[in-house]
Amino acid sequence: MDNQGCFNEIQLFLIKIWSTRKALIKFQPLLSRLLNIKEDFHVHTSYNDHSALDLNVASAVNYAEAIGLKTLAFTEHVRRESNWIDSYVNEIEKINTNSNLKLITGFEAKILKDGSIDCLPKYSDNYFVIASFHTIYGNKEIWMNAIKNVIQNPDVNVIGHLAPEQSFSLDNEELIEICELLREHGKIIELNAKYNRPPLDWVLEFKEHNVEFHLGSDAHSLNEIGEFSRIRKLVQVVNSYT
Ligand SMILES: [Zn+2]
Ligand SMILES: [Zn+2]
Fold first, then answer.
1. How many A from CA of 89 to the centre of ligand 2?
2. From the CA of 43, how far away is ligand 2's center (Å)?
């Protein structure tokens, strides 16, 4: 091989390494964003007044271990005036788990009309927070203002079961505005198995904008923990590379 031929060979080799490296760099964040059906980031307990009575911290942990979950986030409905929070937090923090199950202490907080959350800052500052709409405001302007404000709240980690109200839909520009805010503020979008939300077209748009997702069963009874069959389609869409 003459000098020129050798040079070309080396050049080709370097290009090959570079493109492999680029492919890996591109692939890496995608891999880390894959949804894991062994992680449930939205589980209630009987600290609220409407879950099954046998759903408590200990029984939920036992059940999660039995079905092989890797992550379980307790996210009880909170209000600013809730008076059970300290015993709830203590109970979770004292429980013994096997080393394979990671427990997260958190709350699901209602998004209020002005986009603030119904949770005292001393709790939202220190624990995992899902912010969800639980009131129908019946007005797109109020809803848009609330969602934009809550996404910018540094105490909020996740937006739960997000969907438009029945009386309105968002146009593409409005949806993209939300996508960009979610991305900018690092908020996670929950794929919620209880309500089968967000709508598929929203999930596709969030994915297009590299918004992060995770899974929440929104379990109010033991056998709903880690149960995601209702949102199989959404999980497939998020975990596919197209
Ligand atoms: Zn909810
Ligand atoms: Zn919930």
1. 17
2. 7
Q: How far is the CA of 168 from the centre of ligand 2 (A)?
A: 23
pTM (predicted TM-score) = 0.86
Measured in Å, residue 44 CA sits from the centre of ligand 2 at 6
| Closest listed ligand to the CA of 132 | 1
Q: What is the 3-state secondary structure (H, E, C) of the chain?
A: CCHHHHHHHHHHHHHHHHHHHHHHHHHHHHHHCCCCCCEEEEECCCCCCCCCCCCCHHHHHHHHHHCCCCEEEEEEEECCCCCCHHHHHHHHHHCCCCCCCEEEEEEEEEECCCCCECCCHHHHCCCEEEEECCCCCCCHHHHHHHHHHHHCCCCCCEECCCCCCCCCCCCHHHHHHHHHHHHHCCCEEEEECCCCECCHHHHHHHHHCCCEEEEECCECCHHHCCCCHHHHHHHHHHHCCC
Query: Which residues sit with Cβ closer than 5 angstroms to ligand 2, an ion?
Result: 108, 218
155 C-alpha to ligand 1 centroid (Å): 17
Q: Which range (27-31, 152-156, 199-203) has the least confidence? A: 27-31
| d(CA 136, ligand 2 centre) in Å | 16
Looking at the CA of 160, name the nearest ligand: 1
Indicate whether 14 pLDDT > 60: no
